[in-house]
């Protein structure tokens, strides 16, 4: 059945689950996925034929990124944007040239932002030792302070050759390219880790009594421990949802 060959996908899934879904999609074992914008960046799925985008993503560049998940090989592909009822979606439906003739938005960032610098440093120290005196020109004058903060978190250490990465997972997996929140909550059912969420997502979706969907199954949030960053859920079949 087709329903058995379409899987959900989102960033909160455990790395092993995400890789399994991605590989099954690449190998043709899955016909498709229903996804959040987790597939928008940093993942090459391979030979997808079609992308259906439900609602304008909010920026032109995000729309092209999502549409670009298909057609990465030599075969033809199609991307379809289904507009919602909000004014921005309807504006582009009535004025398509405003979308197709306009360039992508400029990405404006503060290169001295310590959250951004720390992510760069984790990846850099995993490649080569970083030396404060020599590398301040790349990472800014606060390089030493950021390294010491990362050291307190057990992510880097100082060696005679320079600062090196010491995290338990790959540096690239420790750094999110679309979210700077470092507060990760664990969603647990009967002692088993189901997925992870950052704090903003927990506030939006995982309040006590909320319904969470995971791999097609429904779970009810029984307890939210903000101090220990744990969302305790119970598997249950319900005929309603929360948002």
TrEMBL record:
<dbReference type="InterPro" id="IPR027417">
    <property type="entry name" value="P-loop_NTPase"/>
</dbReference>
<dbReference type="GO" id="GO:0005634">
    <property type="term" value="C:nucleus"/>
</dbReference>
<dbReference type="Pfam" id="PF00271">
    <property type="entry name" value="Helicase_C"/>
</dbReference>
<dbReference type="GO" id="GO:0036297">
    <property type="term" value="P:interstrand cross-link repair"/>
</dbReference>
<dbReference type="GO" id="GO:0006289">
    <property type="term" value="P:nucleotide-excision repair"/>
</dbReference>
<feature type="domain" description="Helicase C-terminal">
    <location>
        <begin position="1"/>
        <end position="116"/>
    </location>
</feature>
<dbReference type="InterPro" id="IPR055227">
    <property type="entry name" value="HRQ1_WHD"/>
</dbReference>
<dbReference type="InterPro" id="IPR001650">
    <property type="entry name" value="Helicase_C-like"/>
</dbReference>
<protein>
    <recommendedName>
        <fullName>Helicase C-terminal domain-containing protein</fullName>
    </recommendedName>
</protein>
<dbReference type="GO" id="GO:0043138">
    <property type="term" value="F:3'-5' DNA helicase activity"/>
</dbReference>
<dbReference type="Pfam" id="PF22982">
    <property type="entry name" value="WHD_HRQ1"/>
</dbReference>
């Amino acid at each position: 059945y087709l329903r058995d060959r379409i899987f959900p996908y989102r960033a909160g899934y455990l790395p092993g689950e995400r890789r399994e879904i991605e590989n099954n999609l690449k190998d043709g074992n899955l016909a498709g996925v229903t996804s959040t914008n987790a597939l928008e960046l940093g993942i090459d799925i391979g030979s997808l034929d079609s992308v259906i985008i439900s609602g304008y993503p909010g920026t032109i560049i995000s729309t092209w990124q999502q549409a670009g998940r298909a057609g990465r090989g030599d075969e033809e592909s199609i991307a379809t944007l289904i507009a919602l009822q909000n004014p921005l979606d309807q504006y582009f439906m009535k004025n398509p040239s405003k979308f197709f003739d306009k360039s992508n938005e400029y990405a404006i960032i503060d290169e001295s932002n310590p959250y951004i610098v720390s992510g760069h440093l984790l990846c850099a120290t995993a490649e080569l030792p970083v030396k404060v005196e020599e590398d301040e020109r790349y990472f800014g004058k606060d390089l030493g302070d950021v390294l010491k903060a990362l050291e307190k978190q057990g992510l880097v250490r100082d060696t005679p050759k320079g600062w090196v990465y010491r995290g338990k997972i790959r540096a690239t997996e420790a750094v999110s390219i679309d979210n700077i929140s470092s507060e990760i909550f664990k969603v647990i059912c009967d002692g088993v880790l189901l997925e992870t969420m950052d704090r903003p997502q927990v506030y939006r979706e995982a309040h006590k009594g909320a319904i969470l969907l995971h791999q097609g199954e429904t779970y009810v949030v029984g307890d939210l421990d903000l101090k220990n960053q744990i969302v305790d859920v119970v598997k249950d079949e319900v005929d309603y949802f929360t948002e």
